Amino acid sequence: MSDNTFQSNKGNWEASVNKTLDRFPERKDQFTTTSDIEVNRLYHPDEDETYEEKLGYPGEYPYTRGIQPTMYRSRFWTMRQYAGFGSAKETNERFRYLLDQGQTGLSVAFDLPTQIGYDSDDVMAEGEVGKVGVAIDSLHDMELLLDQIPLDKVSTSMTINAPASVLLCMYLAVGEKQGVPLEKLTGTIQNDILKEYIARGTYIFPPKPSMRLITNIFEFCHEQVPKFNTISISGYHIREAGSTAVQEVAFTLADGMAYVDAALEAGLDIDAFAPRLAFFFNAHNNFLEEVAKFRAARRIWARIMKEHYQAKNPKSWKLRFHTQTGGSTLTAQQPDNNVVRVTMQALAAVLGGTQSLHTNSRDEALSLPTEESARIALRTQQIIAHESGVADTADPLGGSYYVESLTDRIEEEVNKYLDQINDIGGAVKAVEEGYMQREIQRTAYETQKNIENDEEIIVGLNAFKSEEEIEPDLLKVDETLEAEQINSVEKARSERDQDAVDNALVTLRKKAQDSSANLIPHILHAVKVYATVGEICNVLRDEFGEYTGV
Amino acid sequence: MEQIRVLIAKPGLDGHDRGALVIAQALRDHGMEVIYTGLRQSPVQIVQAAIQEDVDVIGLSSLSGAHNTLFPKVMEELKNKNAADIPVVGGGVIPAEDIPYLLKEGVRKIFTSGSSTEALALYIKQLIQPEDQIKAPEKIAHIGIAVKEIDNALPFYTDTLGLTLEGVETVESEGVKTAFLKIGESRIELLEPLRDDSPIQQFLTKKGEGIHHIALEADNLQDRLNTMKMEGVPLINEEPKAGAHDSQVAFVHPKAANGVLFELCQHPEGSEQ
To answer: Using a CB-CB distance cutoff of 8 angstroms, which residues of chain A are in contact with residue B64?
Structure first.
């Protein structure tokens, strides 16, 4: 049987452990508990067929127990705090502070006008400039944002979707200016448009041209920026919009399959792009269900990629994911309690084998986080990593009767949804028909009713209320920023070579009309001559039209 | 009764519509007709929709921090279109310090994170159908003063001030003896503890003699308590209980009113008038 080479067995695992150790030695020669009990690399039952088929060894198909053979014994997850507010210059300062504090990767939050492809001086941007993230209009802003940050050493995650191609090109252009070759740049763009229609709302174009832009990116990056994760298929926002854990995994994996289908249809080879697919999940409060959810998601995706799509490269089978703790679980009441919620959620993500993690700040139900709150959030991860001992063995909860049973049940329920979405005609069709949107709304409403009927207890909200609420210090975004950013984009426009911009935009328009053309090189050219996000997106709006909801 | 029509709108670019959708569904379950605008509505579009749909109230939702810019723009546009009579309520992630500004700009009320949909529905019903609205309390029924012994305290009120003593009554359930002195349309109530576990005794032990509470004449007591409870006002009594002169009374927790203990009392028709 040809599958034997891929069958997880102890021999294979031990061989890959040895290979991994050459590259990433373990953090310690020996791991022990406080009582000096030695901690093994892995605990597992005596080999039996169900064990190897359902769980296998870490780093081995179907990856239920994690995607690396030694998991966090070699390297912790990447601690990646999402940040960005106000101007590029201020955000750059926050980034450099976070890097100094021991953060190991950057994560950029953009303001809504940038995310929806409007310049800061567009009438639609009024009141929103620099509010939920940094305002980027042209390459000029991106240069300020990344000033003195060595792009050959730091990996950057950018939460950008509809105009992902534009922001990616700006990043590549800055890399080039720093003298870093494209093939050395690492990072992730979210670039997941389907969940924007389902849950997050920052769409611009209709599904079809949006899917084209995404496959254009896959293709371009496979050839020129091979280390960049070209998509982060996100369940996070689906969960925030009110879905259950099962719906989160099901709709995310369904979206993932739609991207794979689109790329295959565009003629790409599965093993050329699948290893660059990354995922992004939420960590909510039901601790053990969350742990099981991550384990189940890995197993389901591995099976889909290997069995359904017949991918050959094991890297294509591995579901790598980022996790963020659940913003909607935070309460405005007694905000310090949120530190405890975030700790449990972060622990679930770690026990679920996440590759990177953002921990929310305690004050996020009230406003953007203050520096102090953001620091506590990062410290929470560091405490889990360095003090709790849970990182000293792979998949410590593997084998728990309850966790394994939940993992199996989540897999079953997710597969039911995947079948249903397949019957509808795939995720793109299901999104267009509003199927996922309705399912999520139904659950969100039930949750709200349960909370109001006290069937679901939220500490500090509908039970254990405090007599006195402390007024926390909140971060205020400077209201003068909008005017400054408008001046700045006008200045950038007046200083550039306008003919070069006009030409670049004309070419882009022509190429947009030709559905077989890859738009990325033309967008890259346009950003290099300082065409703005809004100008580029407006050309594409003209050609592609705008999505206006179900 | 005509069906209340509500416009739920998302001004600006914010895509977080979980709250807006949940509220739309909840208000429908309360029998209202709800029109949801969808995302990314400009103030002009919102006001246009409100006028076209002839709604009774507009609900604005924003979680992106743009409320201070966008909510007042909606208010301004309503004025421009002679539609300022349509009340506007708001919700989302709105820091407490921004609320006074938004109220000043004419937004009727802000419901922040953790508000119940029940409270919102009730608020809208009372806003739109004022015949059902609970009126503000009409007068101070009495001011309660805790004293160690009524007999020792009385001469100041009857002799020095010359007030008329209406009578002395014992309320067993509270362990208290009360004396009422009429002054204009209100009264002064002297309270003397009968037992050690009487709340008045506890008050005397803790704070000494002095003003204990202010009682407000309030009709529809049960409805009023329900509304207050829904709005999260801390109550000592969620149900009315028997007070002096056959009245029904309930106490509001002092933390609701800067440390002042308020009693709401409802007298049977015709008495104490």
So the answer is: 112, 128, 131-132
Q: What is the pLDDT of residue A47?
A: 67
pLDDT at residue B273, rounded to an integer: 40
Cβ–Cβ of A445/B96 closer than 8 Å?
Answer: no
Average pLDDT estimate for B64-75: 93
Asked if A315 and A275 touch (Cβ cutoff 8 Å), the reply is: yes
Contact A394, A17 (CB under 8 A): no
Q: What is the rounded distance in angstroms from the CA atom of residue B58 to the CA atom of residue B7? A: 5
Contact between residue A26 and residue A71 where contact means Cβ atoms under 8 Å apart: no
> Coil, strand, or helix at residue B33?
strand
**Hey, are the CB atoms on B25 and A445 less than 8 Å from each other?**
yes
What's B133's DSSP letter? P
CATH topology of domain B5-132: Rossmann fold (3.40.50)
Radius of gyration of chain A (CA): 23
Q: Do B40 and A124 touch (CB under 8 A)?
A: yes
Residue A380 has pLDDT above 90, yes or no: yes
Residue contact A549–B38, C-beta within 8 A? yes
CA A437, A442, A446, A448: dihedral to nearest 10 degrees?
40
User: Do residues A370 and A474 touch, judged by C-beta distance below 8 A?
Assistant: yes
Is B199's pLDDT higher than 90? no
Please judge whether A202 and B114 are an interchain contact, meaning their C-beta atoms are less than 8 angstroms apart.
no
Tell me the domain boundaries of chain B.
Answer: 5-132, 139-266
- Chain B contacts to A (CB-CB under 8 A): 12-18, 21-22, 25-26, 38-40, 42, 64-66, 68-70, 73, 93, 95-97, 112-114, 116-118, 255
Query: Which domains can be identified in chain A, with CATH numbers?
Result: 56-432 (3.20.20.240)
State yes or no: cis peptide before A62, omega within 30 of 0. Answer: yes
Please name the helix (run of DSSP H) or strand (run of DSSP E) that holds residue A283, with its range, or none.
strand A277-283
Token digits of residue A185: 């740049």
**The pLDDT of residue A2:** 41
Set of chain B residues whose Cβ sits within 8 Å of the Cβ of A240: 16, 18
What's the CA dihedral at A383, A387, A391, A395 to 10 degrees? -90
Closest to A368 (Cα-Cα) out of A379, A380, A377? A377
pLDDT of residue A5: 52
The ipTM is 0.82
User: With contact defined as beta carbons under 8 Å apart, do B10 and B101 qualify?
Assistant: no
**Is domain B139-266 annotated with CATH 3.10.180.10?**
yes
Interchain proximity A132–B65, CB inside 8 Å: yes
For B253, other C-beta atoms within 10 Å of its C-beta total 14
